[in-house]
Amino acid sequence: MRLLIVEDSELTAGALRLLFEQLGHEVNVARDVRTAILSLLDMKPDLMLLDLTLPDGDGLDVLSTLQDQNQLPGRTIAVTGHDDPELRARCLRAGCSEVLLKPVPIAQLRALVQST
């Protein structure tokens, strides 16, 4: 499976990349909205793990741009540090299948990715 991790924390992105590569997935990492959009158009991932707080904008901007181009990934899981019901609703309306609160238990994340 092709997986795109959109995460601005180098440490978090590196750990997730290592985990999912060891599980046999092809993994790319983007650390901002611009790079995420370019990576998505190039890679066409099966799954995107999307941090919502990025240095150059809101992670949901990625979905909005791709939706306008009819280029959404197969599945998107939003990851956020904000436990806000309205934010959760926005994510689901934008096309996310799941919204996970940081810190995400690795076993839960792994199970969600493997179920894709």
Question: Topology of this structure?
Answer:
Layout: E1 2-6, H1 10-22, E2 26-30, H2 33-43, E3 47-51, E4 53-54, E5 57-58, H3 59-68, E6 75-80, H4 85-94, E7 98-101, H5 106-114
Parallel strand pairs: 1-2, 1-3, 3-6, 6-7
Antiparallel strand pairs: 4-5
Helix pairs in contact: 2-3
What this model shows, in words?
By secondary structure, this protein is an alpha/beta fold. 46% of the residues lie in helices and 25% in strands. The protein contains five helices and seven strands. The strands form two sheets. It has a five-stranded parallel beta sheet, with helices on both faces. It has a two-stranded antiparallel sheet with strand order 4-5. Helix 2 packs across helix 3. The longest helix has 13 residues, at 10-22.
Keywords, separated by commas or semicolons:
alpha/beta, globular, two-stranded antiparallel ribbon, 116 residues
